Amino acid sequence: MSSEPPLLELENVEVHFEDKPGLLDFGGETKTVRAVDGVNLTLEERDVLSLVGESGCGKTTLGKTAIGLQRPTGGSVKFRGHDIWEVRDGKSDADITWKDIRTSLQIIHQDPGASLNPNRRILSILSEPLNQVNAELSRSEKRERIYALLERVGMNPAADFAERYPHQLSGGEKQRVALSRALLMNPDVILADEAISALDVSLRVEMMDLMHELQNEFNTSFVFISHDLSNARYFTAHAGGKIGVMYLGELAEIGPAEDMIGDPRHPYTNVLRWATPDLSLRETGDPPMRKIDIPDPVNPPSGCRFHTRCPEAREVCQEETPPDYQAGEQRVACFREDEDHSYWNSPELSDGNLADTGTNTDVGEESGFSD
Ligand SMILES: Nc1ncnc2c1ncn2[C@@H]1O[C@H](COP(=O)(O)OP(=O)(O)OP(=O)(O)O)[C@@H](O)[C@H]1O
């Protein structure tokens, strides 16, 4: 067995935001938004981890925390065994610098247009990473490398695209430039945050296939964020990675893509599967949950955070927080995985005895539950 530490290791990660009252919110109080709580994860070399869940469940916050763009308020994030915030704060004697870590962990966003400088040509935009990591290359060598990559991502003729400004590119082409820019840093991990969501459906599969091919060529791992379970399945299953289902800041379940779709263990994974028509598994009738409204992350429900919506919830679920159970290759935070747990003798939870935890009724269309 290899003794190498994982590429990324998150232990008990917590990210809480202090949400100060707005200028017009006289007398309002600072609230603590519990965006991420108690998350444990690892990412290996050439791995894929997809994060799925409803809007606001903490996917972006967790993704950014995993790649060192967001400081956790608790727990640790390690890159190749080094605590990245200790390195950042100069408290580590590791022979790796913060700059090395930042270079190794890249991001591409949903809206690539916003991250590409509108006043610079593509050649200039793509020269930037090479100036940072391959400063020894001559100008013509850099240009050759950029042209080769543009061709590789399907932007032919490269010399023509290289001279364009971002506004002269389609959404799909901009996303290819953003991907190329990340790859030129020679990263170990790319966080693709809803990177295909804004593309036409026909282009999404093409972009995911391209990312798979480049993953092999560049030896890169992906953290892939999507609110769409069928896209997450496609991207993850092809790469033999894992899907992590987030609910109100916590990981409800994580496991290999096909196991998660074929045999979801957590009642919330089952809801996501039900809400994803593309999976062709949707049964008719009501969603398999008590209510649609997402509780407020400022005041999440006690015990299991999903208990207020869970059709399987019993009284113990509002009193105790489930630990992680291993079910085959899946890790599941639900008492139902323990056949000896007091859950099985606990009275069923009726809607009448649910504590009021406050709700965030702003359930976006993209949650999939509104249709
Ligand atoms: N800088 C911040 N300050 C205060 N609250 C924040 C901040 N960033 C995120 N949040 C809150 O943290 C929670 C998680 O947000 P996050 O963007 O990580 O969720 P998400 O699952 O990525 O959502 P979406 O799918 O809509 O992008 C939300 O309640 C959000 O409002």
UniProtKB/TrEMBL annotation:
CDD domains: ABC_NikE_OppD_transporters
ABC transporter domain span: 8-273
GO biological process: peptide transport; transmembrane transport
Record-linked InterPro entries: AAA+_ATPase, ABC_transp_ATP-bind, ABC_transporter-like_ATP-bd, ABC_transporter-like_CS, Oligopep_ABC_C, P-loop_NTPase
Domain of life of the organism encoding this protein: Archaea
Family: Belongs to the ABC transporter superfamily.
Name this polypeptide is given: Peptide/nickel transport system ATP-binding protein
Any matching Pfam family: ABC_tran
Keyword ATP-binding annotated: yes
Highest classification ranks of the organism: Archaea, Methanobacteriati, Methanobacteriota, Stenosarchaea group, Halobacteria
PANTHER family: D,D-DIPEPTIDE TRANSPORT ATP-BINDING PROTEIN DDPF-RELATED (PTHR43776:SF7), TRANSPORT ATP-BINDING PROTEIN (PTHR43776)
Region Disordered, annotated ranges: 342-371
